[in-house]
Design brief:
It is built from 14 helices and 16 strands. The chain has 422 residues and is an alpha+beta fold. The protein folds into two domains: 244 residues, Bira Bifunctional Protein, Domain 2 (BirA Bifunctional Protein, domain 2), CATH 3.30.930.10; 91 residues, Anticodon-binding domain (Rossmann fold), CATH 3.40.50.800. The chain has an eight-stranded mixed sheet. Strands 13-12-14-15-16 form a five-stranded mixed sheet, with helices on both faces. The longest helix is centred in the N-terminal third of the chain and has 21 residues. It is elongated, with a radius of gyration of 28 Å. It binds histidyl-adenosine monophosphate. Histidyl-adenosine monophosphate binds next to strand 6, strand 10, strand 11 and helix 10. The site of histidyl-adenosine monophosphate has 26 residues, from strand 6, strand 10, strand 11 and helix 10.
Length: 422
């Protein structure tokens, strides 16, 4: 029969690579615990309305990239293209605002976007993100930004730059919108079809267009930072002061508008120049009041999400390797039926003591078993044949240096093995 391949834009995570992901995920979990963020898991699919309301009707994500389908009950559902909208929905629905505020949440999730696959851009991808509710003060913005910054530092990554902007509040943006429309109208006929539509609906999106002509047209467009009201300006300044206090370097980039509609005030991206066109490893910002879109009382919110595939690419590029885990402390090579029975007993004892112990399951030759032990990276091996059984001793070989020791079969336990491997 013909083979079936994985859908375009998806990836299998294979056993030979999964330890890398587990390493990063472990580090993320530790860091989140240190900062006091607790994990939240929301459904992979939501009512389509969650994203239309949350992410915004005119965004590329909603208009072009969603995996939307009708379920058997005729309801329109969508595989989540991002985490924030579903989490805001869950925050309101579960009354998390009644728990201790600020609410500090983190997530490690799969997201789905129907995009043209390329390096660092997939149709199913993984995000690590945090969302923090109920803390409007600028100290929060800097704290949220400091988390990915610290993660990059902890793994030893350099060369990821932080770009920062403020897109103000509704009032700032209303004035900015007018200025943008006036600016783009002059060159209207040069804009691409999509941007022509954006001009009416959401002119800030034009600044995000990838078309060379639109980029050229928008070169001298007015900057949002010149339209901030007094309060937004003060907030933005304070965020910068806290970042300075945290010793976090950043570049102000007034052209960052982000691709999702819920943002206000602070927006930011961590960008790498080392992994090609899809260099934004992490993006986020403030979304005060988004809870209202889900029928809740107004609550401030801020967060970010990091694309883990892109993070992995950056690590690879920088030559940063995850430590290889030592799964198998002892591989037992039993020869014959009685030896197999003894092997399962010894392995059980070692497992009880917290060591990694395995034995042959398919009655292969000694040579084949040794080869297998080597392949799985066993720290020690032990051949258990008739003579060992008769004498009641185990002969254990340390693979790193070939050293061998004998011990009685009864005395072989986790403590002894640990000492031997030290
Ligand atoms: P976003 O910028 O759409 O923001 O995505 C965040 C990150 O996810 C990107 O910087 C990128 O690393 C990764 N990413 C996005 N699309 C793809 C793709 N097709 N393939 C691989 N990686 C991708 C959000 O999703 C917001 N929810 C972030 C946020 C949280 N803002 C506030 N809270």
């Amino acid at each position: 029969m013909a083979q079936i391949t994985a859908p375009k834009g998806t990836q299998d995570l294979l056993p030979r690579d999964s330890y890398r992901w587990q390493w990063i995920e472990g580090m993320i979990r530790n860091l989140c615990a240190q900062y006091g963020f607790k994990e939240i898991r929301t459904p992979v699919f939501e009512h389509t309305e969650v994203f239309v309301r949350g992410v915004g009707e005119t965004t590329d994500v909603v208009t072009k990239e969603m995996y939307t389908f009708e379920d058997k009950g005729g309801r329109s559902v969508t595989l989540r293209p991002e985490g924030t909208a579903g989490i805001v929905r869950a925050f309101v629905e579960n009354g998390l605002f009644n728990d201790a505020l600020p609410a500090k949440l983190f997530y490690l999730i799969q997201c789905f976007r129907y995009e043209r696959p390329q390096k660092g851009r997939l149709r199913q991808f993984n995000q690590f993100g945090i969302e923090l509710f109920g803390a409007p003060d600028p100290i929060t913005d800097a704290t949220v930004i400091s988390l990915p910054y610290r993660l990059f530092k902890e793994v030893g990554l350099k060369g990821i730059s932080l770009e920062l902007n403020s897109i103000g509040c509704k009032e700032c943006r209303a004035k900015y919108r007018e200025a943008l429309i006036a600016y783009f109208e002059k060159d209207q006929e040069r804009l691409c079809g999509t941007c022509l539509e954006r001009l009416e609906k959401n002119p800030m999106r034009i600044l995000d267009c990838k078309s060379e002509v639109c980029k050229e047209v928008s070169k001298d467009a007015p900057l949002i930072t010149d339209f901030l009201c007094e309060e937004c300006e003060a907030h933005f300044k304070a965020v910068q002061e806290y970042l300075d206090a945290l010793d976090i370097e950043y570049k102000i980039n007034p052209r960052i508008v982000r691709g999702l509609d819920y943002y206000n005030r602070t927006v930011f991206e961590f960008v790498s120049n080392e992994i090609g066109a899809q260099g934004t490893v992490c993006g986020g910002g403030r979304y005060d009041g988004m809870t209202e879109q889900f029928g809740g009382a107004s609550q401030s919110g801020i967060g970010f999400a990091m694309g883990l595939e892109r993070f992995m690419l950056v690590l690879e590029q920088a030559g940063i390797e995850a430590p290889k885990p030592q799964d198998c402390d002892l591989f037992i090579i039993p020869l014959g039926e009685s030896a197999k029975k003894e092997a399962v007993k010894i392995a059980s004892r070692l497992l009880d003591g917290g060591m990694g112990a395995q034995y042959d399951l398919i009655s292969r030759s000694v040579k084949a078993q040794m080869k297998y032990a080597d392949k799985i990276g066993a720290a020690a091996t032990m051949v258990l044949g008739d003579s060992e059984l008769e004498q009641g001793i185990a002969r254990i070989k340390r693979m790193a240096d070939g050293a061998q020791e004998e011990i009685s079969l009864e005395a072989l336990n986790a403590e002894w093995l640990e000492e031997f491997l030290r």
